[in-house]
Structures are given as C-alpha cells and as structure tokens.
Amino acid sequence: MTARNPDAARDIPEATVARLPVYLRALTTLADAGTATCSSEELAAAAGVNSAKLRKDLSYLGSYGTRGVGYDVEYLTYQIAREIGVTQDWPVVIVGIGNLGHALANYSGFRSRGFRVVALLDADPRRHDELVAGIEVRPFDELEHIVVESGVAIGVIATPAVAAQAVADRMVAAGITSILNFAPGVISVPDGVDVRKVDLSIELQILAYHEQRKAAGADAREVVR
Amino acid sequence: MTARNPDAARDIPEATVARLPVYLRALTTLADAGTATCSSEELAAAAGVNSAKLRKDLSYLGSYGTRGVGYDVEYLTYQIAREIGVTQDWPVVIVGIGNLGHALANYSGFRSRGFRVVALLDADPRRHDELVAGIEVRPFDELEHIVVESGVAIGVIATPAVAAQAVADRMVAAGITSILNFAPGVISVPDGVDVRKVDLSIELQILAYHEQRKAAGADAREVVR
C-alpha cells in the first residue's frame, strides 16, 4: 500500500473529469502570464466555460476560492493536478512510430503533464534503432518486457487502423489498463481497461458548425440590405 | 444568397454542438456494423453519454425518434451532418508540414467528414515540391493566393509554437475565419474568428484520473483482504 491521494475515491461526474484538464491548461496560461489570483469569471473565460459550471466543478474538489479575492492560481493548479493524478509520474509506451508516432514522441505537452514516454515500439524492423526525441525505436515484441520493467499502465496506439486491435490485445495481455487510441476505428477491450479515442476531425467539425452559422448570418444581412 | 440549411440560425448550446460530432462518429460505427435503427440507449452507449442527455441534445435538431422503434441511423446521420455543416465541402489549408503536418495530411478522418485539404504550406524551402498524401508542399507565401482561389475558410496550424501567432495573423489577414491550432500555446485573433485548440494530452489526463482511481481501489481491496 503506497501513499495516495485520500480523496481519490470520491465520485466526480465524468463531464467534470473531462473539464479538469481544460482548467489546468487555463491555469497554466494564467500562471505563465504572471497572474497569482483569478476570479471564477476570469478562469471560466480562459477555459471557455461559463462561471457557474466552473464553480460547480471545482466544488467537487472542495475548492471554493476566497470571497473578494478569487482563486489562488498556484494552489488551485496543485489541487486539480493532484485530483487528476498528474502530480504522479506516468510511464507511457507509444506503439507505431510513423508520422503521428514521431509527432507524439516529440509532443512537449505530455512531459509537462507527468507523462514520460519510456519506449517507442514498432513492428517494422526498418524503424528500429532510429532515435526519436532521444528515444530508440525498439521491436514491438519487447512490449511485455517493457511494461513490467517500467510499470507502464498507459499505452498509446498510433498504428494504422488494421493493426490497432492486435496491438490493444497485446497491451492488455501485458498488463496495460488504459489505452489512448489514435487509430481510426473502434477497438474492444475487456472490462476494467479504459480506452479513450482521439478523433482529430471533431474540433474541425465544431469549427464547421460555426462557419456555417457565420455564412448564414452574412446571407441574412445581405437579404436585409 | 445561396441555398443553406434554413434551421442553421437556431441556437444550440455549445456543449451540445461539441457532442454532435461524437454522435456522428457513433452513428457511423453503427451503420458500418449494419445497424439500420437504434434506441437512444444504444446510441448513447456508443457515444459514451447518458441517454437522457442524448435525447435532449437531439431534440434541438427536432429529432425525437419513433416510439418503440428508435432512431433511423441513416436519417439521423444526415440530420446531424447537415446541422454541423459537414454535408458541405470545406476546403482546408494546413500550414507546417513536419511530422504532425504529414500525419494530418494523411488523416482519413478529415476527408470522410467533408474536409478537403486543398494545400500544404511550409516556410522551409527544403520541404517544397515534396508530395504528401498526393499534395505538393508549397511556400507559405502562397497562402493569400490559395485562400482566395479555393475559398478557404478553415486553416490548420501545425507549426512549432514560436511560429503559430505569425501564421494565425497571416491567415486572418488572408480571410480565414476559423483556425484549428495544434501548436502549443495560445494565439490571439480578432472578434469574428474562431479558434479551436487541440491538446493531445487532455485525453491522457482523463485516463490518468481513472488509473489513479483503479490503483486506489486496488489498494483499498488489499487493505481489506
């Protein structure tokens, strides 16, 4: 039994969990700009949510700010980071070192949030021994060994779609319990394993929705003119 | 005045807008599996939301399904796609053709949602004339010309952080009104321009939260044992 955040067993709604990293990013931006305290309105604006929702979300963490002063940026950052668990070190393995795998291995946002890429694996022997972000690309067959050796709980799949399910199966068999899947298509895993999927087109679709409305608005103005 | 979705001016809450692409993805998965109709519970499970929220979201689109039958997968797909605007063709330009730019140019999820990459631009002359996903990489200076020629409204920034603001400024000056920013850091744009930021570490943080809880649960069981 290791020492852990004693509050980690409380239930926080999934939608709130999904917003905590967004608040963390907004707080980092405020801190980088030299802001020491902020109102819920300022933080909500920086995070792109309304302030009532922000206050509700933070209340699950027992964070209410100080009346007339607001939130202490540094302390709230620590509270959220602890709640998410990114004050810990998370060893991560990336499988599939094509263009996307290269980009992920070089992505500074992982390291700054406690995610440490301990291995890059690829099934293609032509990629082996290449150094990416200072890490050697190794054969996929070393997965089981690396998971045990480095205590890896989180695996990232950046392979083509056709390989994703087989990679996920091997990850789960090796003891990985959380998978971030960048490959198109759905992978199935046993109960107790979490999968999150990154769909790079979702944000583009949200932009398209607003573009369509801007265009409709412009047309309406044209008709009135 | 061109023919557009007459309903596009109705106000849909931003959180609902953000979920519409997720429903669209879930519907595509159901259709690929040969499902013709689905209950709100099935669709909600496939999309990872609760079914009351799904029904509320779809009610903004005037989609209520048929009692005892559920939703027609094909028709609901069309309704959502039309509402988002992805039944239209959206020409997109990608600036910064490093590893991430390569990965984005090759990403099949853009094309399947109506986003057509019309140009790949990079400031580095050594990248010019390279073919990526069948498209020639061209000098960044051609941006203005391409935006006008192809009617580009959406730009994607995949440059290093240090170049992102300058690229955004040029995009806005050229007439682009929506920007998807993959570069770390914040970019500022004038009113009327939408920016969405992709933070690849957010999904990892959500996994970390659940990993931490799994570990806490395992520890608790250990103590009880």
UniProtKB/TrEMBL annotation, chains A, B:
InterPro entries attached to this UniProt entry: CoA-bd, NAD(P)-bd_dom_sf, Rex_actinobacterial-type, Rex_DNA-bd_C_dom, Tscrpt_rep_Rex, WH-like_DNA-bd_sf, WH_DNA-bd_sf
Gene Ontology terms describing biological process: negative regulation of DNA-templated transcription; response to redox state
Keyword check for Cytoplasm: yes
Chief localization: cytoplasm
Subcellular location(s) of the protein: Cytoplasm
Residues that bind NAD(+): 96-101
Residue ranges constituting the CoA-binding domain according to the UniProt record: 85-186
Alphabetical UniProt keywords: Cytoplasm, DNA-binding, NAD, Repressor, Transcription, Transcription regulation
GO molecular function ontology, one term from the record: DNA-binding transcription factor activity
GO CC field: cytoplasm
Keyword presence, Endoplasmic reticulum: no
Feature: DNA-binding region: 22-61
Stored SUPFAM superfamilies: NAD(P)-binding Rossmann-fold domains, Winged helix' DNA-binding domain
Subunit composition and interactions: Homodimer.
Function, as annotated: Modulates transcription in response to changes in cellular NADH/NAD(+) redox state.
Assigned protein family: Belongs to the transcriptional regulatory Rex family.
Protein name: Redox-sensing transcriptional repressor Rex
Species, as recorded: Nocardioides seonyuensis
